[in-house]
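Structure in, sequence out. Go:
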């Protein structure tokens, strides 16, 4: 069979290519956005005084809520389609099935583990909405671990745990796609020597 591309032994169906593209792109974008919240956005917001930090967390939270679930669902639908259309015993189908389960699992994970911290931070945002940014002792009497900055730190740590789920799902989508590709075989490459080089 003639090689139709450097990495393909045969042309894959268009639906398969689209599903793989959506699965990989959406899951990797989800991983990047979730990780950047804990590694970039929250550390920056924690430098602000408590009332402003709570407001900044709320912005991070609401924007993340608009992006996270749709990306998780889109990538899970794509990998679910791949798992359904592939040979059930293939490694690719098993990896895509794993991705289909892992990627949307961030939604129940959020409800089970992040929701209590979310609720406390939402209450802090409302409680400190009219507080002065100059008041350094605004949370002086708050229990240890329950002030805005400690709650934000806890939220960032739990969010990184979500990133592990997304990262595992994204890795499964990539490995599932790669397991279907045929790298050009060495048998198709010939080396000529001496006078044979000239054809």
């Amino acid at each position: 069979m003639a090689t139709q591309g450097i990495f393909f032994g045969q042309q894959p169906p268009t639906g398969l290519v689209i599903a793989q593209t959506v699965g990989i792109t959406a899951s990797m974008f989800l991983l990047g956005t979730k990780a950047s919240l804990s590694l970039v956005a929250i550390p920056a917001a924690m430098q602000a005084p408590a009332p402003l930090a709570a407001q900044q967390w709320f912005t991070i939270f609401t924007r993340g809520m608009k992006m996270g679930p749709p990306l998780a669902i889109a990538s899970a639908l794509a990998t679910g389609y791949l798992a359904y259309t592939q040979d059930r015993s293939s490694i690719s189908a098993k990896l895509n099935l794993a991705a289909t389960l892992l990627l949307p699992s961030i939604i129940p994970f959020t409800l089970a583990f992040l929701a209590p911290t979310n609720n406390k931070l939402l209450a802090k945002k409302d409680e400190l909405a009219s507080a002065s940014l100059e008041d350094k002792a605004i949370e002086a009497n708050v229990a240890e671990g329950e002030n805005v900055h400690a709650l934000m730190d806890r939220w960032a740590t739990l969010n990184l745990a979500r990133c592990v789920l997304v990262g595992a799902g994204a890795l499964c989508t990539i490995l599932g796609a790669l397991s279907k590709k045929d790298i050009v075989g060495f048998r198709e490459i010939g080396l000529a020597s001496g006078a044979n080089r000239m054809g």
